[in-house]
Amino acid sequence: MTFREKQGTRLAFLPDANAESLAECLVALANGDGGLIVFGLDDEGQPTQVIWEEEAEGGLREAATLCRPPVPSRWQSIATHDGALIGINVARSLDLHSLYDGRVLVRSGTRNRPLSGIEIRDLANSKRTAEFETEVVPGARLDDLDQEIIKEYLEGREARSGAKITSTSDLLFEIGATDRQGNPTTAGILLFGKNPQMFFPQSGIVFVRFPGTEPRGENGGIGYGRRDELTGPLARLVARSWNIVFEEMRVGATVNKLERQELTEYPRFAVREALVNAVAHRDYRIKGRRIEIRMYTDRLEVISPGGLPGYMTLDNLVEEHFSRNPRLVNGLYQWGYIEELGLGIDQMIEEMVEAGHTPPTFNATPHLFTVILSKKKERPASPKWTRNMNERQVRALAYVRDNGSITNSEYRRLCPHVSAETLRLDLVDLVEKGLLLKIGSKRGTNYILK
Predict the structure, then answer these.
(1) 381: pLDDT confidence band, cut at 50, 70 and 90?
(2) Pick the CATH number of 389-449 from 1.10.10.10, 3.30.9.10, 3.30.70.120, 1.10.10.350
C-alpha cells in the first residue's frame, strides 16, 4: 500500500519516531503554513514499520525539547486501507521557531531547508503582519457580515471536511473572522462582508481590456476597450473576475473521440490560479491601489499589491509556500476556491506548457507582484512529467528545445540568482530522469534532449 498523497510543502513522512528528524519537521512546518507529519512511511509513502503510540509520544516529548520555542501540535489519526497511521498536525505559528542549534528551517518541497540571515529577518517581519487579519475593524458590527455568504461558506466547508458544524459563532471566532465578542475582524469583513470596500476600498479589482499590446486605446490614443470595477467579498471577487476574463477570452473547440472540447486562449486553471492567488495573497494593508487585471491581445497580466511575503523569492515559488494572509487563504481553501494548498504555481506552469504556451512570467518588486500569461506558442506541448520538475528545469528544457543544447554557463545565465551547485544538481536530476543526455566533460560539457 502506498499512501495516496505525496510529500510536499505541507506533508512530511517519517519512517520512525526519531526525535531530531521530528523536531526538524515541526519547526519547518510551523515556520511555514503548517501541515501534517505522518509516522511509519518512507519518502515514497510506502510503509516502513509499525509505530506505536508510546513511541510517537516519546519522540514528540523529546522533539519538543529541541525546538525553540516548543511547537504547538496535536495528534491526528489517519485512516488507510491497511489500518490507521499516527500523524501530528502542525499549525502555522505566529512565533519564529528554531532548533536547539540555532537553525531556522522551512519546508522546501520534500525537505527541510535552513534559512539564511536575511531570510530569517524577512520571515520574522512577515509573521507579525499576519496579526492584521485578526484586528477588529473599527466601526464594523456583526450585521455587516452577510449571513447568506457565511451559509455558503459553511456548506462548502462541511462538504470538504465531512464534519458537521454545530455553532456558527464559535467557528467564526475559531477562523479569526470575529473576536470573542462577535466583532468582525479584517478577515471576517474581507471574507463575509456585505460591503467590504466600505471598510477596505483597496480590496476591489479593476479589469481593463486594451485593443492592442500596449496600455492604449484605439489608434494609440488614451483609452481602453473595456473597464470594470469589481466589488464584494473575496469569493465573489474571484468568481466575478473569472467570469469577465472568460467573456473576453476567445473560445474555440475541437472534437476528440466524438466529444466536443472547448479551447480557451489561456488554460482555465492557469487563469483561475492567477486570479485566486492575487486575491488571497495581496497585501491588504496597502491603501490606494487595487488588484489590476490587464488583458492585451497577446497576454494577460494580473497585478497584485504587495511584494513576495516572508522568505519567498522568484526562484523558490514552486518548491516553497508561505502565505501573507493565512486565514484568508484557509478560508478560500475551505470554501473550495483553492484546490490544494501550496500546489498552484507548479500546476499553473504545467498547464501553460502543456497547452503549448511559454511558461508564465513572474515579476516581483517590493510593492507589486505580477503574473503574466502569454499567448506565445513557440514550442510543442510538454508531457505530464513536467509536474516532477521545478520551474528552472522547465525553463532549461525549453531552452534545449529552442537551441538544441544547454551548457552549465548558459543555464546560469537563465537563472542568475541561483547558486551554481543548485543548477548543476538540476541538470544531473534531468539526466537521471532520462530527459537529457550529458555530452562531453568538464568545460566542454553540454546537455541535449534524450
Answers:
(1) very low
(2) 1.10.10.10
Q: Which helix (H) or strand (E) segment is 254 a member of?
A: strand 251-256
Residue-by-residue DSSP string for 45-95: S-B-----HHHHHHHHHHHHTTEESPPPEEEEEEEETTEEEEEEEE---SS
Residues whose CB falls within 8 Å of the CB of residue 178, separated by 6 or more in sequence, listed in order: 142, 169, 172, 184, 185, 188
Q: Where in the chain is the domain with CATH 3.30.950.30?
A: 11-114
Q: Which top CATH class is 11-114? A: alpha beta
Looking from the CA of 33 toward its CB, the CA atoms found within 13 Å total 27
| Whether pLDDT at 257 is above 50 | no
Is the overall model pTM greater than 0.70, yes or no? yes
> How many residues are listed for the chain in this entry?
450
The whole-angstrom separation of Cα 13 and Cα 89 is 12
pLDDT in tens, 263-306: 788 999 999 999 999 999 999 999 999 999 999 999 999 999 99
**Residue 120 main-chain phi, psi, to 5 deg:** -65, -40
- Give the class (CATH, top level) of 202-328+335-374: alpha beta
Considering only 43-47, 76-80, 192-196, 337-341, which range has the smallest mean pLDDT?
Answer: 337-341
Q: Which amino acid is at 20?
A: E
Q: Are 48 and 15 spatial neighbours (Cβ–Cβ below 8 Å)?
A: yes
